[in-house]
Amino acid sequence: MTSQVSSPAEPADGTAVEHVGGQRLPTPDQPGGEKEVRRLDRVIIRFAGDSGDGMQLTGDRFTSETASFGNDLSTLPNFPAEIRAPAGTLPGVSSFQLHFADHDILTPGDAPNVLVAMNPAALKANIADVPRGAEIIVNTDEFTKRAMQKVGYDTSPLEDGSLDGFSVHPVPLTTLTVEALKEYDLSRKDAGRSKNMFALGLLSWMYHRPTEGTEKFLRTKFAKKPDIAEANITAFRAGWNFGETTEDFAVSYEVAPATKAFPAGTYRNISGNLALSYGLVAAGQLADLPLYLGSYPITPASDILHELSKHKNFGVRTFQAEDEIAGIGAALGAAFGGSLGVTTTSGPGVALKSEAIGLAVSLELPLLIVDIQRGGPSTGLPTKTEQADLLQAMYGRNGEAPVPIVAPRTPGDCFDAAIEAARIALEYRTPVFLLSDGYLANGSEPWRVPETEELPDLRVQFAQGPNHTLDDGTEVFWPYKRDPRTLARPWAIPGTPGLEHRIGGIEKQDGTGNISYDPANHDFMTRTRQAKIDGIAVPDLEVDDPSGEARLLVLGWGSTYGPITAAARRLRAAGEQVAQAHLRHLNPFPANLGEILERYDKVVIPEMNLGQLATLVRAKYLVDARSYTQVTGLPFKAEQLATVLKEAIDG
């Protein structure tokens, strides 16, 4: 869903909501608008329920309407790894958190202002995160004695006083939904499945969200089952009307569009995996090359395979391989044939692909290895986030096999990071790691659709003929004769007359590419491959140090950008001085990183691992960088990092 921002505009006044997306929402001076309307600058909502309750769909629809309204937003889907965990149990709880605001925000929020709990398990699993005074909407129909005992409630939390510190709204969501759908030929069980749409309608009323997009979505989603579509729309409207008429919800809330937070342009809500997919398609177009994806499905990377399979019209070919090794083997073969080869996976798949990555290093062909990191080791936490594959990407191959590493910082930045990874791969003839993670992959934010003239030219020149003259004057093609600037070897397409050459994993002779076991040649080729990676041109690292007086630098990479930046803002608002820098290029590091580190008395590196970037920085620059780590499967909270950084400033 896209929205157009032409120029900054003042938000609506206190008595009406802006005309958004061609529709006007109910306002206090219209029929049904007698209830109090309060203006807020931001809200954090968490939908939580059983895996079968449709919480991800509910959150996604609320997010889409919020994006079309013009708010800045950030999301955190959180769901179990099991396809269907036992109903009503704590392991089966699925949640979706959305933070939206009338100003620039960076994280899904530390704690929800509103919790929608569809059953006792959802309440118990999430109540510890809910601050006192927050609103809790509970589906009372699910608070049966058996359901409560299943999660360890001896007495009903709705009656024993344990929720007295919260603003609790008991709503029989299932009963109300079934009643609203009594005109449809549905069983009580089938009708009850629409209770998530009832809840979505209620929350849409509470926060003045647009509705047309959701109704259109439901009609499209259930186009082959129009009765089901209309039933869901009826439940959605019933939820809206319930909020409008019930006395339990005396207040609704406005969060004005964040028009001053965005530069002019066309925006859409986008997830990290979708942005990365679009970036790969764009890279193929910018390089004027076919895009070939060889992949094996794995959480949380599978969405990229699904998305790219839709874009054959852009010269994209996708191959779902029988295993991880076959996936990268096919992608590497496509690169040899002149395509932009890509393989997507997560940490366990990288381990399986390691030998083929080493082969790509030896062949010196462009290849993108997209690693959507997740919690490990082994199967670990398949649906949770982590940043623990950095050292695997850096060193996880036999022999000296250096590979560049690029990491996006936000969901929308996955688009630009994919193009940057492709630039390096094509220009320097090398495999490149693109390290995203589950938090970025599944989270979403508003993204400005770039103009085509803003994007780089990635076109390459294939070898066309001989490139070397022998002593006797014979002109020949040497497959490992290098560009003196980039040290890249020529890219010769199979079938081009006169460019026949050997291929394989055994060490090559410099220049000729012939098989070589010569010790001196192996030493030279190893050092040359390393020098090629070390010499990759990457932008200097930028430092955010508004006052120029900070003595503490917080250095991050990847998805920690949002929490780190939010924490830095909190400290600066409190009068503290803190500098921030965030790495996109992790191999090679930006040339000015060492000089930046020397400027500051203290360096703190927050990571969702046990200190992998800190290990690399300490080893290369011999600085006493302090590592602050977390491996819970969840992103950092801004308040948590602000506390740590304040302690570092004062220490």
Automatic annotation (TrEMBL):
Keywords: Oxidoreductase. Residues 294-507 form the Pyruvate flavodoxin/ferredoxin oxidoreductase pyrimidine binding domain. Residues 1-36 are annotated as: Disordered. Transmembrane segments: none annotated. Pfam families: PFOR_II, POR, POR_N. Residues 550-620 form the Pyruvate:ferredoxin oxidoreductase core domain. GO terms for molecular function: magnesium ion binding; oxidoreductase activity, acting on the aldehyde or oxo group of donors. PANTHER family: 2-OXOGLUTARATE OXIDOREDUCTASE SUBUNIT KORA (PTHR32154:SF20), PYRUVATE-FLAVODOXIN OXIDOREDUCTASE-RELATED (PTHR32154). This is 2-oxoglutarate ferredoxin oxidoreductase subunit alpha. It comes from Streptomyces uncialis.
